[in-house]
Amino acid sequence: MISIFAKPTYFLGKPGDEKNWRLQRVTSRIRGEEIAEYLGAKLNQERSDINIYVKGCGHGEIKDGDYVDILDDIWTVDWLKDKPKVKVIAMSLSHMDWLRCKLTNKIVYIPHHHINFDRLVRTRNEITTCGYVGAPQNIQVKGFKFIYLTNFKTRQDIIDFYGQIDIQVIGDVPDVPYYHPTKIINAMSFGIPTVAPEKMGYKEVEGFYFHDLKELKDGWDAKKIIKEAEKYHIINIAEKYRQL
What we know:
By secondary structure, the chain is an alpha/beta fold. 26% of the residues lie in helices and 17% in strands.
């Protein structure tokens, strides 16, 4: 049996400005709630045979042989240096490479699953709208409408948003090894291409997104990116948890 421990999500924003609120600890929901529900694992209950602590959750309760799903929690990396028998979960290939330079702990690679459990496919005929899930960025795409989504509450909110866009555009993000390509993979699962700068955190999806909008002038191979995204369907990611 697997037990997963993760801090609850919450909204951050100004009172009365709910439309711009941002969900915090999204990874706790992805790596905790959604995986626990799919696997039938225990969530924030008693310990089991396999215990996974998401991000900085439960330092005082973690024992040798447990797993820490470290994500972008840099402070926990330092804490783990004195806990070599605690196992570590890396969320991307660049993240795993970076952790191996920092720690002697056993490290396993389990990427994020994408949101498209039902394998929905983009059906829009026109190419008019670019978008991004997350905090507003200073992005302008000439000739296209640009929309973004910040105050999502459920996975379905994000699925509905992808149903409104034709191209995902990601602005500049920190070029750090613990950044992950989940937004790109989410869009890929619908057959939607992404334009984004080249980053080390996107290592495993290089060749499946675009660095310039001009590269899309002749269209894109939706079947190719959907096929690649299947690696990250929750069915396949859940199997990696079972293998622990």
